[in-house]
Prior knowledge:
The chain is of the alpha/beta class.
Amino acid sequence: MKRALNTDKIDQFKKLFLCANTPIIITYALFITYRIHAFTYYMMIGDFITYACFVFISSQVLCVIISALSLLGVCLAEKFGHTDRAFEIALTIILYSGYSVSLFAFAFSMERVFIDQSVLDGIGITPVVRAAGEMLIGVTIFVLMLIRGATSYRAQAVNKTTTTDLDADVAEKRLNRRIFLASSASALATATVGSRLVAGNQFEMPIQGRRDGLKNILLITFDALSATDMSCYGYGLNTTPNIDLFANSADVYRNFYACSTYTTPAIATILTGRYPSNSGIYHLAGMLHDQNIYRTLPALLKSAGYETTAVFGNPYAMPLMGSTHGAFDHLCAAPRAGWTGIAPSELQELPGMMDMIDLGTRVGTVSGLVVPAFRQMFSETPPHETFEAAKTLVSKADGPFFLWIHVMAPHAPYLPSEEFRYRFLPQGVLETRQDMLHPRIVNKTKSKSQIQADIEDVRLRYNEWISEADDAFGKFMSFMDKSGRMGETMTMVSADHGEFFAPNTYGHSGGTFHKSLINVPMIIKDAGQNTGRQLATVADQTAIAPTILKAAGIEQPIWMQGSPLRSAQTIIREPFESANLAVTQYFVRNSKFEPITKGTIGAVSSDYQYVRNISTGEEKLFSLREVSSGNELEGARTDVKNDIPYELHHLRHALTAKFPEVMLTGAKNG
Length: 670
């Protein structure tokens, strides 16, 4: 009798699973179709297969969870509710809920594919309003389907039919056949993803034995930290007292620039010492392929006998870091709020995980707009958690190490903890993530003065977030001092990109190269250094990898495009400084498999900034002396190309010669 009961529950679980699986598979197919454009932009066929398999596995795991919870509900209802129709009720709910999910997925994918946001902006529908409307449509579909399911269930209860043994046998065979197909597909997808994980950890370069006398290398990068908002770079608010103290005995490069305006391509430049146009990494989920896999800084350091480790707080960089094929001995995703220990990174390295995280974040954000209780008040990636994870890696290091710590703060959302909140902005203003959404701040229905006042408030909350990141940095450096390792460690502090706060907008990414967006900190303290210097050298992120290789005594390979920054002992010569160029690129609209014909490229010299729209040929020249580095919002810049044509031609020629892979033919003065 007990065995028969168990068999009955297994059959119920299988029916619940397949009932949930059908709409989820439909949703899966629509999701893959919706994301298909990404595969033509930056993914190889192997990435596409892994992506599809990973998302499929996720869908099947979701089905198992739904089925298990539903069966548990059925068992509880039968035991305590004394009903024999709990299973039919659960099956009906799953069936019609699934219909609603499939219908919403179809409506959402079609709407997103065929209706461009720019069209909606023209009629006053912001991305936030659009997302809230989509959620309202989804809830409406769900409610209507549940009503339809209730009607169907009542009709079935009234008109019960008797099933013959032959019909039951056919249904059982069909059920088992579908279960077999789902299980086989899941097993094949799991094997594909597993093989990708194994292959990604295989390091195939020769490794030298550990050598004595090598200095440790510590690279700390903050996400979206602009030099213009740091007190050690002249900002009026005391945002970075701990970094200021560190900078007093270090080399501070005041004219250091990011090579792109958002995380992945900027991190790729630090990782490879190459510009985005050369590495092929200029998309958010870009990865290394073919011979580029081992053309990285950690691969060279590992081959030379370094223990290579990294802690990354931004999940959008993990697919890139995971494509280094074992160049990192330890690659960790930074713990999120409430977690203990170091979070596993293997899944975050997979193609597809970034979309899953992004989907969850968007659902949570929009849910907070609809239900105030769901609004997010504090960051999920606090900087102290990231540095605590780094302490663990330092403590376990055996021999010379290269440690890269990428801290998510002060990247948006600007949600400092209670200790740092209200330092610069009073209570009751911009308390949650939802309050600081870009379309809510930059709303065309508000006056220009109100928009500017709101952006100023956002910047103050950003400054508080910087202060918390700075505090976490100070505590980590205190740990390093007490460990006795600083005397044998070269430390570099920088950022992947900055953040800008203009009169009409704020944030990062895009092809408008505001100085505060691309001017990032670069502070270097060599082992045993006690004297600080302020250096005016113009340089960009391609210099980071060569500088580290030089400190490690490793010859720079010819494929690296940057040059090492000079040490504190080098005498600064102003004429040589003026000859340097820093380059920024934004090519996200191009496929990495085709020539670069769209986007923006820019160059910064000691006094001027050149910006060019590649597709239109429009070019502009700005005087950096006009850009304030103080506390005011970055205002409108004056195009001076007609006043200084020589500088315009010089910078254009320099870029044309430096980047033959970028189509820089023709010019159109804008």
